[in-house]
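On clarity, I found the account of how folds are encoded harder to follow than it need be. Since the whole study asks how a given chain folds, the encoding of that fold should be made plain. For illustration, here is how one protein appears when written out as sequence plus structure tokens:

:::
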Amino acid sequence: FFFQAEDGIRDKLVTGVQTCALPIYTFINTKVTLTGNITTMTCSNFKAGQAGMITFIQDGTGSRTTVWCSTFKFAGGSAPTLTTTASATDTLVFNCRTSTFCVASLIKAPS
């Protein structure tokens, strides 16, 4: 995978089944194009008061999945799943209360 500057947003292309490392300090908002499943997600360098969005875009095949880093805390304690339709776009919105606790919500692609 790689980061590429695009209109102030960094794009991360995820290929194959792999680990996705998100160095949060390098962006506020980013997008991840999925061409494979994310089986491990590590996030680093969160700061209290930091907020942002990560948009996950399914490739033309779809059916891609992700796990979430433990810093993201979801309502009800259950991690959401991505929309798996080809070319679907879901957006994770987060707001960090501490460096290890970020309230998160997944805005699902319109059906």
User: Anything to note?
Assistant: The two ends are 28 Å apart (CA to CA).
